[in-house]
Amino acid sequence: MSIRVGILGYGNLGRGVESAITQNPDLELAAVFTRRAPESVKVRTGVKVLHADELEHMQDEIDVLVLCGGSATDLPVQTPHYAAMYNVVDSFDTHAKIPEHFAAVDAAAKKAGKVGIISCGWDPGMFSLNRLYSNCILPEGQDYTFWGKGVSQGHSDAVRRIEGVKDCRQYTIPVPEAVDAVRSGSNPELTTRQKHTRECFVVAEEGADLARIENEIKTMPNYFSDYDTTVHFITQEEMERDHSGLPHGGSVIRTGVTGLDREHKHVIEYSLKLDSNPEFTASVIAAYARAAYRMNQEGASGAKTVFDIAPAYLSAKSGEELRAHLL
Amino acid sequence: MSIRVGILGYGNLGRGVESAITQNPDLELAAVFTRRAPESVKVRTGVKVLHADELEHMQDEIDVLVLCGGSATDLPVQTPHYAAMYNVVDSFDTHAKIPEHFAAVDAAAKKAGKVGIISCGWDPGMFSLNRLYSNCILPEGQDYTFWGKGVSQGHSDAVRRIEGVKDCRQYTIPVPEAVDAVRSGSNPELTTRQKHTRECFVVAEEGADLARIENEIKTMPNYFSDYDTTVHFITQEEMERDHSGLPHGGSVIRTGVTGLDREHKHVIEYSLKLDSNPEFTASVIAAYARAAYRMNQEGASGAKTVFDIAPAYLSAKSGEELRAHLL
In chain A, what residues touch B136 (CB-CB under 8 Å)? Predict the structure, then answer.
């Protein structure tokens, strides 16, 4: 029998989960749920679309609910709410607020006897896992995380809020020399500016003051002022032709030493090169949806992160098969 | 209170575990055990050396026993034997025999209420973990493993058995073009010869027939005949000066597709660059020794592999700390 998955929220991530489920024969998409008018949502696989209110009474039809809302306002409310009714998985990525989110989901899920997996994706998610494994293996060492080359939604949105900007796509780009220095094991101390550059492709409104826009971008605190930023003004057609994808990626690198005299250096690197950030995140979520269901079947409950989940739970294969073929 | 670790076997791996324990403040080396005469073994940290026979009655003094023998003959006997008395960790790496080894350790450990972690290191070990995670995230894709550049003990030993050879160091080297093709996401089909080359540094006995030795190496079935192999004859001094280390490393790469039309490509890569193969393996083992003890304290028993162990068990830090700093 398949694991019946529900999706709440049908943006890029929700569509990614819909498509990831088609790649996992033991998962089955039960329904897409939306807070909009269901008839206004056209799903690509033809699965039924229901209003989110229906979730209040569909516990018998859904084994795991995947929450595809945003971390700013949706998930802090939705994940604890639905963890009281369903096994849930979310991709909450506001790092600073993870402790309180975990606590809220944990309380709700424990009370309901459900499993709630939070902060699932690649960062937080697979990058976090690799930070943890590498830190445990090389306790004396240094961590580096590089993001990109890829589109940052948050930075693109920040530029779009500037007066005179119609559209923007912002790429975060690791500085190749910094990555090479880290890979060499030389343990460099790197400033924010030395690690990444930022590149903005901007469609301006007709007659807008381009010099002012460029200056506002480059001096924007937190988002751009600590980076070397390049701004290109392009047409709407160029934007659609050249920048419609959502690629991303990056590397988590830990360098460390072993030996009684700490005389041997080691470099552990985990890298991702992703054509579609939301689809890859969704693929991680699909695997953890399986884990949520299986752990709950074995009696587990409460909030979990990728740190708390034995890798074998992510796979549809048996322990015997995994040991024979992947170990 | 520290976790008290015993080491059985004081070769390269045993020495690596001894040194790894000095990097983990919550671990404490209780004793080194040997099947040789204890007084003949000089340990580098000055810890006491006992005969392996003492292990029959030291259950109150050791929380985890790390088995540092070889996979060919030592571990198939030792790991089940000691899993009946202690939490144990080994680095059993005969891939084909893992299922039977797992079964033997599982039976002994379950009966004794102990945890036995087998096949711990980097391959099997961290490479296996990355194969598993990547396969679960990208169910439609292709796996590639490259080893090196690094010293293969097995291949070095095989050459040493050739008549006229005094010493040999064999390096396994990934073919750069093959690695690049895989990283590009082009999903190449690669033969054994296309993936790795082999390089041998050989000290020959005086008057030995070098042409014959080179030919015997290059045509040796399984070990060399499927590879492009280079043979260099060097002096014993050059061997000691240039080839005394045991570096290794490699990459596990999975490429796969997502999207309803499988239109987006993704590349996941995990790479290691290690100055000391045995010390890195030992560092992985030290982290899993902690996990063995902690899981057993929580009531777990039986054989486990890296697949069965939630990552948080490897860390001395609490769940709160891990979520706050590494997630």
Answer: 287, 290, 311, 314-315
Q: What is the mean pLDDT of chain A?
A: 97
Q: Cα(B110)–Cα(B116) distance, rounded to whole angstroms?
A: 9
Specify whether the CB–CB gap between A51 and A257 falls below 8 A: no
Considering CB atoms only, which of A133, A283, A320 is closest to B314?
A133
Q: What is the C-alpha separation between A83 and A321, in angstroms, rounded?
A: 32
Beta-carbon count within 10 A of A297 CB = 12
Q: How many helices (H) and strands (E) does chain B have?
A: 11, 14
pLDDT in tens, A160-204: 999 999 999 999 999 999 999 999 988 999 999 999 999 999 999
- For residues A300 and A304, give the distance between their C-alpha atoms in angstroms, rounded to a whole number: 10
Q: What share of chain B is helix, strand, coil (3-state, %, to 5)?
A: 40, 30, 30
Give residue-wise pLDDT tens across range A4-31.
999 999 999 999 999 999 999 999 999 9
How far is Cα B188 from Cα B274, in angstroms, rounded to an integer?
27
Which residue among B22, B259, B305 places its CB closest to the CB of A279? B259
Q: What are B279-317's pLDDT values in tens digits?
A: 999 999 999 999 999 999 999 999 999 999 999 999 999
Contact between A136 and B99 using a beta-carbon 8 Å cutoff: no
Chain B residues touching residue A98 (CB < 8 angstroms): 323-324, 327
What is the bridge-based pairing of β-strands A64-67 and A3-8?
Answer: parallel
Distances (CA, A) of B232 to A207, B153, B202, B248: 71, 17, 6, 20
Considering only the beta carbons, identify the residue of A19, A119, A314 that sits closest to B260. Answer: A19
pTM score above 0.80: yes
Looking only at the bridges linking them, the beta strands covering B150-151 and B141-147 are unpaired
Please, what is the angle between helix B74-83 and helix B98-112, to 10°?
A: 20
Pairing of strands B196-204, B228-233: parallel
Beta carbons of B323 and A99 less than 8 Å apart: yes
Q: Is B8 exposed, middle or buried (0-12, 13-18, 19+ CB in 10 A)?
A: buried
